[in-house]
Specification:
about 120 residues, five-stranded mixed beta barrel, Inorganic Pyrophosphatase, alpha+beta, single chain
Length: about 120
Amino acid sequence: MDDPAKYRAFLGQTVDVVIDRPLGSKHPRHDFIYETNYGYIENTRAGDGHEIDAYVLGVSESVETYTGVCVGIILRSDDNEHKLVVAADRMTESDIRRQTHFVEQHYDINIETVDA
């Protein structure tokens, strides 16, 4: 299991996200469409051996990169990695849960926000 402290260190920090799954794109192996821009933080390492993934919330068009603040983390108790939530403004736990439900509904999650 990936160490949640590694993800908590990003809370409140400005990060650059490289978008490899833009808003509206289809997942390469699973049957769903991305309802948000989704990507990764370069030069990081998650529990799955790849870079740390991040949802970009509050952007209504497909983008290639995004610079914003890590406003939350999604801790998955039944997976080997967690997720960052990046946005321009702070978000509530319920807003994050609602906007990431299209994927996170399949996991047992706990959401921590920058205000928590």
